[in-house]
Amino acid sequence: MIARICWTAFAALVGLAGATEASAQPVLPPPYSGSYQPQGVDEIGWWREMDEEESVLAQSDLVLRDEALNGYVRKVLCETVGQDRCNSVRIYIVRAPFFNASMTANGTMRVFTGLLLRVRNEAELGMVLGHEFGHFENRHILGQFKARRSGSDVLAWAAVLGSLAPSYDVVRTYRNLEFSIYGNLYRYGRDHEREADRLAIAYLNTSALRPQAASQMWESLMAEAEASARSRGLKKPKFDAIAFAASHPPDAERAGYLAELARADAASRDDGAVRYRAAIAPWLGMLLDDQIKLNDFGASEYLIDALAQGGWTAQLWHARGELYRMRGSPRDLVNAAQFYAQAVALDPALAEAHRGLGLSLLKTGQPGAGQTALRRYLELKPDASDARMMRMMIPEGLQP
């Protein structure tokens, strides 16, 4: 009896997941029908929980409230998905140095600052924002909520029924059911990710931005992951493999079908790279600093080098110096001093570069030059939070 009940429930879940698989053909975005309104006690209660979470998020110190930055990100979303869709979303930029964004069923979109560091133009940003909106428009979050609830209900009842006739066969059947339900839920989520990708590329296809950037973004992310693994002495990641509990399709698969679904006649469109660099410029120092503090040398160096494709700036030389100085081997400190010197040469008023140069020179046995650099740092930034500590490294006669 338990086996028949379990496998009947499993078959129902399989049918639910199969119904979500997206067509392999490119499609245009459907007419927007507006925000979904919760139905029933469970959905209304869940919406209230999300509203309460949003109220907490809105007061969080991690949220960047800069009007210009928030306005720019919203502008990219609106230009990607259209104004009617855009009005349904409330965007929060969260200071977290990871490539991520998320969407809730009540219209709350979280954009992590690590995403802003990694995307290179408006088209790539639009792809991610459109992907998250695709989840919202197709009610994926609600669907996953219902699927998880149904799956947990099936397992709970199966456990009760199994306890009435405990035997090895019953336990084995329950374990098989548990494995199947969880596996199907993971596959259900991956299908939603594919569907959201296809909807996002459809948004880009009908926008003024270059849709080919979507595939190139995943190529860049795979290159970053390779650089990270290489610096740690790990094997090259398998970008075409799917783990049992994977929540997303493999990166190589996503890059492949996004390239196929991009309109060929849109390849000459502007991707908004110049506008994007200008909008992110005031925040680039913070973004790089947060990334370097992750202690992922390979990924950080890859990102700095990628940003320098358009030319090395004092800010990028300083970030590279910080990266090497924080790793801290004797050879790294010598390199760091050279990078800081490059930054100072381009921008003599960049106080933090003088600080890094001074600390690197002191650690490589050059106290005179190091103290001179620290003195210059204090002249440029006398009210620095670490000014007292820096003065302790300079002889009294040399202090500014």
Keywords:
single chain; 400 residues; mainly alpha; Serine Threonine Protein Phosphatase 5, Tetratricopeptide repeat; 4-stranded mixed beta sheet; globular; disordered N terminus
Tell me the distance between the termini: 85 Å
Q: Trace the largest sheet across and list its strands.
A: 1-2-4-3
Counted by DSSP, the helix tally is 18
Q: What is the number of domains?
A: 2
SSE succession: HHEHHEEEHHHHHHHHHHHHHH
Class based on secondary structure composition and strand pairing? mainly alpha
Q: What is the number of strand segments?
A: 4
Largest β sheet strand count, sense and barrel closure? 4 strands, mixed
Poorly predicted runs: 1-24
What would the average pLDDT be, to the nearest integer? 86
What global shape is seen? globular
- Radius of gyration from CA coordinates: 26 Å
- Percent helix, as a range, is 55-70%
